[in-house]
């Protein structure tokens, strides 16, 4: 349901759309009882009949209402309008940290990145003290606005939040599609989690703010990327204090026991590292370099194990047995499984269309498969759907990689769809929503639909 400016919904007067994602849309609205504006979050209409998503939405309001902290977005009210669930939250007139990254692609100034992450750490520390985990910390969930004493920073979107005692028993099927680039190894593996999962995500967020890119390395020449590679910020930013490399490495350690054990401890380490601007890598000494290298090896080692244990498709090779390649592929069929790398426009009513990964003539052939390292138009339209309709942030790449496969798997689990790949009817029409575009100008029409 797309609300229009001036429309009255649940007593609130809609001002404009602020954004939309996989769970629904957020609108700027006027509060009917108080002279203030609110961010009105409305559950997507196609999820309204899904008891699982209704439960997630309700739980977010119930849990976040327990929080009262200047670095956490407040929830004012919630309710149900017909079959549609809604939630009125504090409106923050600013932007989010991911938008700051887009404006400064080479990375934020180290002291600014540190201030943002340390302020977010305060909000998360309060949540942890209230026995609550966020479970989806990333730049787009950290809001930044102008304040009387500099920038205000607030943690938002507790849609994946869960009480710590519940999270201790959660499995993979209990997770909505998180953002893989910022998720701890135990999250991706579906193992029990605790506060240290949020601390891992804070470290990944700091790395992203400093380097200007999500913590996922590029594919090696002639091969495929099988692990997430978090580069040291000092390798791409000589102005970054070297001590921050070690802070990020410890926060993102594969073993949760080797990470900082509280957000306060992590923030103290960040502030200490930022104050250490006069030490050069040589002055850090051999022991510091060894500690940093060992920590980074531990991170990569754990991620390799997760990648090997949790890949959705078990083989890293293509369907015809050839080794993966990073060279763009052309369309064509092979014996057995098909390698399908093109896309097609499929009409939706009059004057609208969706873009789908195309397989056989009927655009619906489960024999097709994407394997890690494949690339092309089919991957582009898939990433487009995950971003625009499901709010899943992925690297802007045409390569089919592990984070994209994990995102698809989560959607298949959430919607009880067969694991038949993006060309299979269950995944295309049941698990994934596809953005609708206008034929006249090619613009997004603001709605998402299953594949016809």
What is the secondary structure topology, with strand pairs?
Elements: E1 8-9, E2 12-20, E3 24-30, E4 37-43, H1 51-64, E5 75-81, E6 84-90, E7 94-96, H2 97-103, H3 110-129, E8 132-133, E9 142-147, E10 150-155, E11 162-163, H4 164-167, H5 185-188, H6 195-211, H7 233-236, H8 243-251, H9 263-274, H10 285-310, E12 342-347, E13 352-358, H11 377-390, H12 402-414, H13 425-431, E14 434-438, E15 444-449
Characterise this structure.
- The chain is an alpha+beta fold.
- It folds into 3 domains: 8-90, 2-Layer Sandwich (Phosphorylase Kinase, domain 1); 94-310, Transferase(Phosphotransferase), domain 1; 342-449, no CATH class.
- 33% of the residues lie in helices and 18% in strands.
- It has 13 helices and 15 strands.
- It has helices spanning 51-64, 97-103, 110-129, 164-167, 185-188, 195-211, 233-236, 243-251, 263-274, 285-310, 377-390, 402-414, 425-431, and strands spanning 8-9, 12-20, 24-30, 37-43, 75-81, 84-90, 94-96, 132-133, 142-147, 150-155, 162-163, 342-347, 352-358, 434-438, 444-449.
- The strands form 4 sheets. The chain has a 6-stranded antiparallel sheet, covered by helices on one side. A 4-stranded antiparallel sheet has the order 12-13-14-15, with helices on one face.
- A hairpin with a 2-residue loop joins strand 1 (8-9) and strand 2.
- Helix 3 (110-129) packs antiparallel against helix 6 (195-211), helix 8 runs antiparallel to helix 9 (263-274) and helix 8 (243-251) packs parallel to helix 10 (285-310).
- The longest helix is centred in the middle third of the chain and has 26 residues, at 285-310.
- The two termini are 19 Å apart.
